[in-house]
Amino acid sequence: MTTLTLVRGDITRQSVDAIVNAANSSLLGGGGVDGAIHRRGGPAILAECRALRASRYGKGLPTGQAVATTAGDLDARWVIHTVGPVYQGAGSDPSPLASCHRKSLRVADELGARTVAFPAISAGAYGWPVEDVARIAVETVRDTETAVEEVRFVLFDERAFAAFAGQVHRLRHGGESPLPPGSP
Ligand code: ADP
């Protein structure tokens, strides 16, 4: 049984076995959560990313795939880098985003990670509406067979946190939307 937990905060401050990075295909760093992970994790992460570019991923990590490196100075054993899709407008194919979650959990299983923190992949620079990201992320994790015991979604802002909380509530309570604060 995988427990889903939600935290509002900075993913680089989490103590978990593996931290998922919303990377870009170059694996060489970027803005948002990627920049934060490399800043706080130190140069060891980038060194392993460069080695991956020089070996398995000469053309970069494809969208929807995942690969692990050391977590450097972070309070984790691994960073799992995954590349989310860029939003193409209404009707965008959700399957690459689902794949990011599935493949990240598969990598976590291969490593033996039991606690894994995810950011809201593709909800920043890649432009996906956070409500869609939350639905796809929560449903995919629920539907994926894994030995991971805790999946912790770490949401940076209140809007993302509310979107994920709404989805978790919907799954637990059979499709109703959560009551607004102060409801009887
Ligand atoms: P993408 O390029 O996949 O959209 P971003 O890093 O731009 O990735 O944004 C993904 C999500 O991560 C956004 O909701 C953003 O607010 C959030 N984010 C940015 N920094 C952090 C952080 N340090 N911890 C957790 N989430 C973060």
Brief write-up:
The protein has helices at residues 32-41, 43-54, 95-111, 130-143, 158-172; strands spanning 3-8, 18-23, 66-70, 78-83, 115-118, 150-155. By secondary structure, it is of the alpha/beta class. The relative contact order is 0.20.
Structure characteristics:
single chain; 5 helices; binds adenosine-5'-diphosphate; 6 strands; Leucine Aminopeptidase, subunit E, domain 1; 184 residues; six-stranded mixed beta sheet; alpha/beta
Tell me the number of helical segments per DSSP (H or I, 4 or more residues long). Answer: 5
Task: Please give the alpha-carbon distance between the first and last residues.
Answer: 32 Å
CATH superfamily: Leucine Aminopeptidase, subunit E, domain 1
Q: Please identify the top-level CATH class.
A: Alpha Beta
Bound molecules: adenosine-5'-diphosphate
What's the mean pLDDT score? 95
Query: Structural class, please?
Result: alpha/beta
Q: Which fold name is given in CATH as the topology?
A: Leucine Aminopeptidase, subunit E, domain 1
Low-confidence stretches: none
Radius of gyration: 16 Å
Largest sheet: 6 strands, mixed
How many β-strands, per DSSP? 6
Shape call: globular
Which architecture per CATH?
3-Layer(aba) Sandwich
Topology:
Blueprint: E1 3-8, E2 18-23, H1 32-41, H2 43-54, E3 66-70, E4 78-83, H3 95-111, E5 115-118, H4 130-143, E6 150-155, H5 158-172
Parallel strand pairs: 1-6, 2-4, 2-5, 5-6
Antiparallel strand pairs: 3-4
Helix pairs in contact: 3-4, 4-5
Bound molecules: adenosine-5'-diphosphate (ADP).
